[in-house]
Amino acid sequence: MPLPALFGREIELWADRRRLREYARIGRILFAQRIIIYTAANVLAGYYYSWRTAIIFMGLVLAAELYDAICFRNILSVKAWNARHVRIAMISLYIGTAFSAVVIASFSITLAGMQGTDNGHFLSMFLLFSASIFAAMNNRHFLNVLALRLSIYVAAILYIPVRDVWIERPPISSEIWLHLFTVIFVLAFILECARNFIAGYNANLRSRKALEEEHERTKAAFQAKTRFLSTVSHELRTPLTSIKGALEVINTGALGEAPEKMRGPLDVATRNSRRLAELVSDLLLLQKAEAGKFDFNMEHADLSELMTEIVERFRPFAENLEVALKVDVPDAQLWARIDKTRFNQVIANILSNATKFSRKDGGEVNVALRPSGDMIRIAISDNGEGIPEEFRDKVFQEFQQAGPLETRRHEGTGLGLSLSKRIIDAHDGRIWFTTSTGRGTTFFIELAREPEPIESSSVVAA
Fold first, then answer.
1. What pLDDT, in 10s, does the model give residues 216-261?
2. How many helices (DSSP H) and strands (DSSP E) are in the chain?
3. Distance between CA atoms of 257 and 259, rounded to whole angstroms?
4. Domain range holding 164?
5. What is the mean pLDDT of each run of 10 residues along the chain (462 residues)?
6. Radius of gyration of the CA atoms of the chain, in A
7. Do 337 and 300 contact (CB within 8 A), yes or no?
8. pLDDT for 291-343, tens place per residue?
């Protein structure tokens, strides 16, 4: 079979499966409603006309419902659909539709016969009209199935007034003729309702199908990107580690003093090899995060002590850029459950950004740690230019940096804040920022505050 034809058949099979399952689900949902309506109609028929007739038709109704219930169960139980499953399911729907429609039509015609010809057959017509509208609203998934059901109902609806006209042979001025004309008008209304319901359902199905196809394409692109990141990152890591290691060995003088003319290029190469190593590390971390393989080693940690350690390790970097680093951390212990390595990565990344984006002259970064109810809040602020308005919604997105690539003042991949948010989210925490043009930016992190661990209390008491 040619590929386009095969692909078209797969799409058709997908559509049939979707329609069948939805038809079965709706049929199950409306089971109680149908039983209530049929029971009420049979009770009225039994009380006013014949209990024997009412009981017989109630038994037939229950038999039709039992058959439908079995069909719906079989449809919903199929996991892997093929053309044979669709064919069997459709045949069972045709049989069930014909059976239940004939039962309702026969019941209505029987009631009309018991009523005689001198009334409008309100109960019989009400049952047939309501059944027709009910079918148009809820059986719109398959045009042929709906057409079969409506054909049986329409035949019964027309049969009742035509029978009265045939039996009575009244003049055109008789209300019996008026009943027939009224029935024809109502039938036109029912058919128009059915057409509108079918058109609306098909439009909705097409829209849903287009969305699902787009979702599949997006998912495929995402998976391709993830595989690409993983492959490239792993392929880069091994040679890059060797290059970085060799450069650092040369810079230490272990192989002899490097010539003066080579020191500048070696420093540039070393610095850029470190940048590449950080980029590869971030790409691998991003790939793990998107694949749901973010590993965390959660433990209790005193954030007061940990923040002080991180800031002190970072201080030389800030001093090298002539940025003053101020810390306001309480002496009291503030415990949280974190992965120390990941947390260190988040704080170091925010501190790096704050330092790089502080003012060139008089740059200042402030770090504060405070309890806030049941939470612990960390605030890291700079006195730079702030984040541009048009960029604020993109701060936590991957590969995003303020300003076009050719005009950026600072190096970076735009992965740091995205990874930081993923890490904080995994800690059930919150990260956000406030910014003001020309006055700087403050990043906030909130983590749940934990009670002091028992083993820590024991050590302190000893």
1. 777 777 777 667 666 666 666 667 667 766 767 666 666 667 677 6
2. 12, 7
3. 6
4. 3-169
5. 43 71 86 87 88 92 91 86 84 91 91 80 83 77 82 88 86 81 79 72 70 74 69 65 70 68 70 66 64 75 90 86 87 89 87 84 87 90 86 73 45 70 89 87 92 58 32
6. 38
7. yes
8. 666 677 888 999 989 999 988 888 888 888 888 888 898 888 889 999 888 89
Residues 6+ apart with CB under 8 A from 421: 396, 431
Q: Count Cβ atoms within 10 A of the Cβ of residue 58 and give its class: 0-12 exposed, 13-18 middle, 19 or more buried.
A: buried
Residue 432 carries which DSSP code?
E
What CATH code is carried by the domain that includes residue 383? 3.30.565.10
Q: What is the pLDDT of residues 6-21, one digit of tens each?
A: 334 555 666 678 788 8
Q: Return all residues near 127 (Cβ < 8 A) that are at least 6 apart.
A: 41, 104, 107, 108, 111
User: Measured between alpha carbons, how far is residue 343 from residues 63, 297, 298, 381, 396 in Å?
Assistant: 65, 11, 10, 18, 17
Structurally, how many domains does the chain consist of? 2
- Domain contains 200: no
Choosing from 117, 141, 169, the residue where a domain stops is: 169
One domain, residues 310 and 165: no
Helix (H) or strand (E) holding 324: strand 323-328
Measured between alpha carbons, how far is 218 from 213 in angstroms, rounded to an integer?
Answer: 9
End residue of a domain, out of 123, 147, 169 = 169
CA dihedral 250, 251, 257, 262 (to 10 degrees): 90
User: Within a domain: residue 222?
Assistant: no
Q: Running DSSP on this structure, what letter comes out for residue 391? A: G
